[in-house]
Specification:
The chain has 146 residues and is mainly alpha-helical. Helices cover 53% and strands 4% of the residues. The protein has helices spanning 22-38, 42-73, 88-101, 116-129; strands at residues 77-79, 104-106.
Length: 146
C-alpha cells in the first residue's frame, strides 16, 4: 500500500550469483534508528512506505541476480516456489521479465504457495499424534554433516 520509491536503500555489492542481505538489513536498521531519533512516530507514520521501499529494493536485487544467472547460463525458463512465491511484487516482477527479458516464467497459483514452515508444522503434528519424540540429548545443528 506504500510508495516503493519513498526511500532509497543501497544494494549489497555481492559478487556473482551469491546473495547476502546482512548489510542491507543493517542499513535498514540504521536508517530507521536515525529517522526515529528525528521523529519518534516515524515508523507508525511511514510504515507502508518503509515496507514498500524495502520490498522494492529486495525484488530489484533478486531480479538483478536472476538476470545475471539467465545471461550466464542462457536459461530462460524461470520457476519460483515456496512461501516467497506468494509475494505479489515478486510475482509481478517475474511476469514482467517475460516481456523484458524473454523469459518463460512458472509461478504457482496463489493457493499453492505454501511456506516450508507449514509443511514442517504438519509433520511435527503427525509425529506428536504418534508420540514419536526425540530424546532430550539430541541437539539441532544447522551445519550437520551427512
Amino acid at each position: 500500500m506504500g510508495n516503493p520509491k519513498a526511500y532509497s536503500f543501497t544494494r549489497p555489492k555481492v559478487e556473482g550469483l551469491n546473495f547476502s542481505f546482512s548489510g542491507f538489513k543493517t542499513a535498514v536498521l540504521y536508517f530507521i534508528q536515525r529517522e526515529v531519533k528525528k521523529n519518534p512516530n516515524f515508523i507508525s507514520e511511514n510504515l507502508n512506505d518503509i515496507c514498500a521501499s524495502i520490498q522494492y529494493t529486495i525484488i530489484g536485487i533478486l531480479i538483478d541476480k536472476l538476470k545475471l544467472a539467465s545471461k550466464q547460463t542462457s536459461i530462460t525458463h524461470i520457476a519460483i516456489g515456496g512461501g516467497v512465491s506468494a509475494n505479489s511484487g515478486i510475482r509481478k516482477a517475474l511476469k514482467e521479465g517475460e516481456q523484458k527479458f524473454g523469459w518463460t516464467t512458472y509461478v504457482p497459483k496463489f493457493e499453492f504457495t505454501t511456506d516450508n514452515a507449514g509443511m514442517i508444522a504438519i509433520v511435527g503434528y503427525l509425529k506428536y499424534l504418534e508420540s514419536d519424540f526425540a530424546t532430550g540429548d539430541i541437539m539441532a545443528s544447522a551445519r550437520l554433516k551427512i
